[in-house]
Amino acid sequence: MINKDILELCHKEGFKDNELCEAYKIFFGTLVSKPRLDIINLLRKGKKNVSEIMKELSMDQTSVSHNLARLKLCGFVIDEIDGKFRYYKLNNKTIKPLMEIIEKHMLQNCTHILRKMNVMKGGENVNEK
Fold first, then answer.
1. What span, in angstroms and rounded, lies between the C-alpha atoms of 68 and 43?
2. Structure confidence by residue, pLDDT tens digits, 53-92
3. Domain tally for the chain?
4. What is the pLDDT of the chain when averaged over all its residues?
5. DSSP 16
6. Are residues 67 and 22 in the same domain?
7. Is residue 18 domain-shared with residue 44, that is, in the same domain?
8. DSSP codes joined into one string, 18-70
9. 100 lies in which domain range?
10. CB 44 within 8 A of CB 99
11. What is the value of pTM for the model shown?
């Protein structure tokens, strides 16, 4: 169920419920990409410019820029200009706490998820040994 306040705001702006659902899909879909997760985790250590991200993640400029644009669109990262460089940093107000919640959840459920995935692929459940 989508929060009533969010629905009211979107309706006031002229958006329909299905458009809001699309925005949710885009937001959560942002977390599906390994390169975007890699960028998020790198930026958790501090702000970086495109060249630094390229070097540390061994990604090309086009890929870094494309993924940063998506992260910025969804509010995961904020950019700031410092001299002649544009730096990207994690949105510490909302995304940093969200990533911490996700990590707590994964800490409790990661091995369970991996075991289920292994069984679904026809592998052996390590708990049954």
1. 11
2. 999 999 999 999 999 999 999 999 999 999 999 999 999 9
3. 3
4. 89
5. -
6. no
7. no
8. HHHHHHHHHHHHGGG-HHHHHHHHHHTT--EEHHHHHHHHT--HHHHHHHHHH
9. 93-129
10. yes
11. 0.79
